[in-house]
UniProtKB/TrEMBL annotation, chain A:
One of its GO terms (biological process) is regulation of translational fidelity. This is Uncharacterized protein. It comes from the Archaea.
């Protein structure tokens, strides 16, 4: 018997991601199916495996210095005043 | 004038004065006008190409230095930025986004006098494998327009296959270059992670995606890789390849090389009989060329699709957070809106697959679920890398079909998310491990293409291209029917 992730949990995550679901049911069902497929990871037997990460030596990174950027990126925004971006009100 | 010529032939023809750049570009534009209404490879065609062509013709006539590309028309997937022009990622969210800077790969092509003829279609934000998720409608397979061209770099595959341009640049996160290359019968190369700069590529899953070429021949892929590869101070993940020449000795052959036939990719549930037969046939061809082929098992392969979707969704959930209508996105006034509802409104412009990946990407790494999904996926990835390292101690190459199936009809898989994910079964391993992989056109069965995938160890592109070239030279495929 498979343990399906319940729809409320998925809905809650969608809400936290600031996603309003119009065709709610279809999306949830598809996400549920994908998560159900991900259960296959339980059979991989990797519990004791170490997670390896890519490491880069500090001397391989570019110099930590200020590179002036001469293009006015603010002009690409539709909504700004002076050097401030306009955003909606936080309650 | 044959628009189906390779990049190398094009360069020779221009040098021999057989036609001018302007003549070739004009013919290519005619071709686009003639076929693209049906195929929809392009989202936009560059208005300045004739002007660019004349400038390069002038340089040639006046014996000035001309770049290696001699004005050849190259198309570019619409998730790669070119300053001053639109980059939409086939999303409504970026419908009016004009890139403020140029990606490194485009700067390199421009400095070699390539002409960027237009931006090609993709699945929205490169999430998909058929272009059916493009917000601007799908591209169609030139071999049979009832079938998908593959994706996500579907427009790139179609534009090369249908002779609308000489070559294209795509991006490959889980097979997005190799899959359309296989479905459209062109060559597609996913380079080693870090060999090509991603500066100016709109991020989807940064830890595994790569830019690479889609071309008519293996030599053309080597030619383009020579131009676009190498270290870039704007992308700290790039590696120094010491200006390696990938075209040098490309005809060296593969006699004495050891090739592993990946067992899990030749007995998987979804593998079609025709594709399996083509793979077995390719193995025999390699043996005739003097290679030693034997089965090799990689135990993590059955878990790679789940690991891939878990990791990429997580990265996508983070990368796509910027489409909040404040920094990027569909612009409308913020007054009168509360913060969350304003951002939700902006997100409503994202297409259904992108929305689902964002939800998944919020879910799988979240507290309480990360242990079951995200961390386990990272462990599968680590173990797979160890397995791959071990296998390449013995073998020079690994082989499989590029895709377990041939192109499918529009609508055939879109309702079933799991069968759609399984199309990526053979391609995701190269992305999760960072190794290079190439798809070579091998057969046309029932009027539709089959590509063979060859993989090599990290930074072994030179020998990988030699193997691909050897295989390519044994096949003689029909011309595209469009």
């Amino acid at each position: 018997m498979k343990n399906l992730v319940n729809e409320e949990e998925i809905s809650e995550v969608a809400k936290l991601m600031k996603i309003d679901l119009a065709d709610h049911n279809d999306h949830i069902k598809r996400v549920q199916k994908m998560l159900e497929y991900f259960d296959i990871l339980d059979n991989a037997g990797v519990e004791s495996e170490e997670i390896t990460v890519q490491e880069t030596d500090l001397d391989k990174l570019r110099d930590d210095k200020y590179n002036p950027y001469d293009k006015n990126l603010l002009k690409f925004l539709k909504s700004y005043q002076g050097k401030y971006v306009k955003a909606p009100k936080l309650n | 004038m044959d628009l189906g010529i390779s990049a190398l032939s094009y360069v020779n023809s221009i040098k021999n004065d057989e036609f001018t750049v302007e003549e070739f570009i004009s013919k290519s534009l005619e071709r686009i006008n003639q076929v693209d209404e049906k195929l929809h490879a392009f989202l936009r065609v560059n208005d300045l190409v004739i002007k660019n062509a004349r400038e390069i013709d002038t340089k040639i006539k006046s014996n000035q230095n001309v770049g290696k590309c001699y004005g050849m028309p190259i198309s570019v997937k619409d998730n790669i930025c070119i300053e001053g022009s639109k980059t939409t990622c086939a999303s409504k969210v970026l419908e009016n986004f004009v890139a403020p800077y140029t990606s490194t790969v485009i700067s390199k092509l421009n400095s070699e006098d390539a002409i960027i003829i237009g931006k090609t279609n993709l699945d929205e934000f490169a999430m998909g494998l058929s272009t059916e998720f493009s917000a601007y409608g799908p591209s169609r397979n030139p071999w049979n327009t009832d079938y998908v061209p593959g994706g996500s770099s579907g427009g790139s595959g179609v534009s090369v296959s249908a002779n609308e341009c000489i070559a294209s640049l795509g991006s490959d996160t889980g097979g997005s270059i190799r899959n359309p290359a296989s479905f459209c019968s062109v060559v597609g190369l996913k380079p080693t992670y870090g060999l090509v700069s991603r500066y100016g590529l709109v991020s989807y899953a940064n830890s595994i995606e790569q830019i690479g070429p889609l071309t008519k021949t293996v030599e053309d892929s080597a030619f383009l890789l020579n131009i676009i590869s190498g270290i870039d101070s704007n992308d700290n993940t790039t590696v120094d390849n010491k200006n390696q020449d990938y075209l040098n000795n490309i005809d060296a052959g593969i006699s004495g090389k050891k090739i592993g036939i990946v067992t899990e990719m030749t007995n998987s549930e979804g593998l079609s009989t025709d594709v399996l037969n083509a793979t077995n046939d390719a193995v025999k061809t390699f043996e005739k060329l003097g290679a030693n082929c034997e089965q090799v098992s990689l135990q993590m392969i059955p878990y790679t699709v789940a690991a891939y979707y878990t990791i990429t969704s997580t990265e996508a959930g983070s990368n796509l957070a910027r489409y909040d209508n404040i920094r990027y996105g569909y612009e409308f006034d913020s007054s009168g809106f509360e913060f969350n509802s304003y951002i939700s409104q902006a997100r409503s412009k994202l297409g259904p697959e992108v929305i689902r990946r964002m939800i998944l990407g919020g879910f799988v790494p979240s507290a309480g679920h990360a242990g079951k999904y995200f961390l386990k996926a990272l462990k599968v990835k680590s173990k797979l890398i160890a397995e791959i390292n071990h296998v390449f101690e013995k073998f020079d190459f690994l082989i499989s079909s590029t895709v377990p199936i041939q192109p499918f009809k529009f609508g055939e898989k879109i309702q079933d998310p799991v069968s759609l994910m399984m199309v990526d079964f053979n391609t995701v391993t190269a992305n999760l491990t960072g190794i290079p992989a190439i798809s070579v056109p091998y057969k046309i069965t029932n009027g539709l293409p089959i590509g063979i995938q060859i993989m090599a160890n990290c930074l072994e592109e030179h020998s990988l291209l030699q193997a691909a070239y050897a295989l390519e030279k044994t096949v003689d495929l029909p011309k595209v029917p469009v």
